[in-house]
Amino acid sequence: MSARGESTLTVADTEYRILFTNRAIAEAESAMGKSVIAAVRDPGVGDVAQMLAAGLEAARRDGATGRRAYTIQDAYRVMDEVGFAGAAKAVLEAVAAVLAYNGGAEADSAESPNP
């Protein structure tokens, strides 16, 4: 297990995989010029597009498909097809999975209760 959050968006017959890791979140933060926490609190269209682009690109790298790199224009095109709400839901759920990851500490504490 690791700090990963995944989601998919479907446009026509094409499925777009979105992947977030700490690295992908850092890349989105750099592109947005603010923390992902600030963007999650009040996500604007540009924030969601930047996070979507980072998530698409992370999934592309992870899958090693040989496809060209995703750009912000690709993210806007996908968002235009699925709508802001659909894109925001997929992105924010995947980001939340990474932010909530605690290295399995809950599983460890559940297996060995304190006396």
Question: How would you summarize the topology of this molecule?
Answer:
Blueprint: E1 5-11, E2 14-20, H1 22-32, H2 36-41, H3 45-63, H4 72-100, H5 105-111
Antiparallel strand pairs: 1-2
Tally of separate helices = 5
> Level of helix content?
55-70%
**Quaternary state, please?**
single chain
Q: Decide which structural class fits the backbone.
A: alpha+beta
Mean pLDDT: 90
Report how far the terminal alpha carbons are from each other.
27 Å
Characterize the biggest β-sheet.
2 strands, antiparallel
Radius of gyration: 15 Å
What sequence of helices (H) and strands (E) makes up the elements?
EEHHHHH
Strand content: 5-15%
- List the uncertain runs: none
In what order do the strands lie side by side in the largest sheet? 1-2
- How many strand units? 2
Count of discrete structural domains: 1
Q: What overall geometry do the principal axes of the alpha carbons give?
A: globular
